[in-house]
């Protein structure tokens, strides 16, 4: 059964519009609290004042985070669940801290790389992993029931965890295996996207010995991801070139993505980062299972792995699907072109800081620049166009005969040396049109042709 609220990355939408309203957030906290408490009871854990369930709540730097934090806290308290508040913290930090505090769940208030006027809520299990579909469905079912508050003496309590940033910084540092000297001598430009990493990421790299110039570290509640971060790396490119840095690192608003820039100022995307990390694991004899990309991963990445004798598989777009394929196949490294990379031998979820550290460790170990490490990946021309659609109309648009005919026409033009992918975004009301092939001009022309057809269908009220 299709879920009404949960998408591929939790619940997300425009602030003030359903479902991202304070009353819904309160009900969501209560519903999740009831489900978590019930499951805890099924495991035989006593519901005493000392041992009743607790959840950990973090957020990014959006102004609306205060409102949703308060609403969720109230909902959990009404369900008899204690709350640990960590304030602005990266998404992967909440996943890590949920495990270390033995919380029933970690909750993140964030819309990741979206602009400030969007927000969302995503959950992590007590293992630090995203909830499975069955548990999300159970929470949605609970949302249909009337809110019933527990007795006054059973209400949940809340407290702030002041040690959270320091704990997470130490965890990140522990994931990188450097020889003596760490990152001493490295000059790094770090873009924190005015987001959740602004107060922790600089400490990680500085404490490992790097010289760090930081941009995008002045959040005001409204500027998250605005012309900065992994979705807007041009400012980072300019800073790397101007400062003569060895490498640039761009994180997104909630810190689970990483895009890099080499010393020449060239952008290094998630596919190339994935290649560097997997190749380093292979060189060290630590690579297990296949490397997992997605349907959006560039064909050049697949060909580079094939040349190296590394098994490569594709999952559906979305880090949760990459995670599922890795777990099913015994793999440890996978990711998306967007920079959402999983290193399951280091962390339970995508972590931009941890990802960057793995690349830096590969540079140190090999003595090579980032430009040299990514050289084997000869990327094929790929054009991605986002077409805005009405919410809930993706299936109708993709099933339209005009769209189907346009796809077949593009496939005929490209022949066997190309790929076409049309898919709805899991986080925004967009239809993503991707065309890939060997001829860059043909790829761009075909992508625009297909996107124009989609816009025509959308414009006619599909």
Write a concise synopsis of the structure shown.
With 462 residues, the chain is of the alpha/beta class. It contains 15 helices and 18 strands.
Number of domains: 3
What is the overall shape?
globular
Q: What is the distance, rounded to the nearest whole angstrom, between the alpha carbons of the first and last residues?
A: 23 Å
**What characterizes the major β-sheet?**
6 strands, mixed
CATH superfamily of the largest domain: Alpha-D-Glucose-1,6-Bisphosphate, subunit A, domain 3
Q: How many beta-strand elements? A: 18
- The CATH class name of the largest domain reads Alpha Beta
Radius of gyration: 22 Å
CATH topology of the largest domain: Alpha-D-Glucose-1,6-Bisphosphate, Chain A, domain 3
Please count the helical segments: 15
Strand content: 15-25%
Mean pLDDT figure: 94
Q: State the low-pLDDT regions, or none.
A: none
Describe the protein's architecture and organization:
It is a single chain. The longest helix is centred in the first third of the chain and has 21 residues, at 22-42. The chain has helices at 22-42, 65-78, 91-100, 133-143, 164-174, 201-207, 234-243, 270-283, 299-308, 319-329, 352-366, 370-374, 394-399, 401-414, 440-459, and strands at residues 11-14, 54-59, 82-88, 105-109, 118-125, 158-160, 187-191, 211-215, 247-251, 258-261, 267-268, 291-294, 312-315, 333-335, 341-343, 382-388, 418-424, 430-437. It is globular and about 65 Å long. With 462 residues, the protein is an alpha/beta fold. It contains 15 helices and 18 strands. The model has no long low-confidence stretch (mean pLDDT 94). Helix content is 39%, strand content 19%. It has three domains: 11-162, Alpha-D-Glucose-1,6-Bisphosphate, subunit A, domain 3 (Alpha-D-Glucose-1,6-Bisphosphate, Chain A, domain 3, 3-Layer(aba) Sandwich); 168-176 and 186-374, Alpha-D-Glucose-1,6-Bisphosphate, subunit A, domain 3 (Alpha-D-Glucose-1,6-Bisphosphate, Chain A, domain 3, 3-Layer(aba) Sandwich); 382-459, Alpha-D-phosphohexomutase, C-terminal domain (TATA-Binding Protein). The strands form five sheets. The chain has a six-stranded mixed β-sheet, sandwiched between helices.
């Amino acid at each position: 059964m299709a879920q009404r609220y949960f998408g591929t990355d939790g619940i997300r939408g425009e602030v003030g519009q359903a479902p991202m309203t304070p009353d819904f957030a309160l009900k969501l906290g209560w519903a999740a609290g009831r489900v978590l408490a019930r499951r805890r009871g099924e495991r035989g854990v006593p519901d005493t004042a000392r041992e009743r369930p607790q959840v950990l709540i973090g957020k990014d730097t959006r102004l609306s985070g205060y409102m949703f934090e308060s609403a969720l806290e109230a909902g959990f308290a009404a369900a008899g669940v204690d709350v640990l508040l960590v304030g602005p913290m990266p998404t992967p930090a909440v996943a890590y801290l949920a495990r270390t505090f033995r919380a029933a769940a970690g909750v993140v208030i964030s819309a990741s790389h979206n602009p400030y006027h969007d927000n969302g809520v995503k959950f992590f299990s007590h293992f630090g992993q995203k909830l499975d579909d069955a548990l999300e469905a159970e929470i949605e079912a609970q949302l249909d029931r009337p809110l019933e508050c527990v007795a006054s003496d059973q209400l949940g309590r809340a407290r702030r965890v002041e040690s959270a940033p320091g704990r997470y910084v130490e965890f990140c540092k522990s994931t990188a295996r450097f020889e003596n000297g760490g990152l001493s001598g490295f000059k790094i430009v770090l873009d924190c996207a005015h987001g959740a990493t602004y107060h922790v990421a600089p400490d990680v790299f500085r404490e490992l010995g790097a010289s760090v110039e930081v941009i995008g570290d002045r959040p005001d509640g409204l500027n998250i991801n605005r012309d900065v971060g992994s979705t807007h790396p041009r400012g980072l490119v300019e800073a790397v070139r101007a400062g003569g840095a060895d490498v640039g690192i761009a994180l997104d608003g909630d810190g689970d993505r990483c895009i890099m820039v080499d010393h020449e100022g060239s952008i290094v995307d998630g596919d190339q980062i994935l290649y560097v990390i997997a190749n380093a694991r292979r060189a060290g004899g630590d690579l297990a299972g296949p490397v997992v990309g997605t349907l959006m991963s560039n064909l050049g990445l697949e060909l580079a792995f094939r040349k190296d004798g590394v098994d490569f598989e594709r999952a559906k777009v979305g880090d949760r699907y990459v995670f599922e394929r890795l777990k099913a196949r015994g793999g440890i490294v996978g990711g998306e072109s967007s920079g959402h990379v999983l290193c399951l031998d280091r962390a339970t979820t995508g972590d931009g800081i941890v990802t960057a550290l793995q690349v830096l460790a590969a540079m140190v170990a090999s003595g090579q620049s980032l430009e040299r490490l990514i050289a084997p990946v000869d990327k094929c021309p790929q054009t991605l166009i986002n077409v805005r659609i009405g919410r809930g109309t993706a299936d109708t648009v993709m099933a339209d005969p005009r769209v189907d005919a346009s796809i077949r026409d593009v496939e005929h033009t490209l022949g066997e040396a190309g790929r076409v992918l049309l898919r709805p975004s899991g986080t925004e009301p967009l239809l993503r049109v991707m065309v890939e092939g060997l001829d860059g001009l043909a790829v761009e022309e075909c992508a625009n042709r297909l996107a124009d057809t989609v816009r025509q269908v959308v414009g006619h009220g599909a």
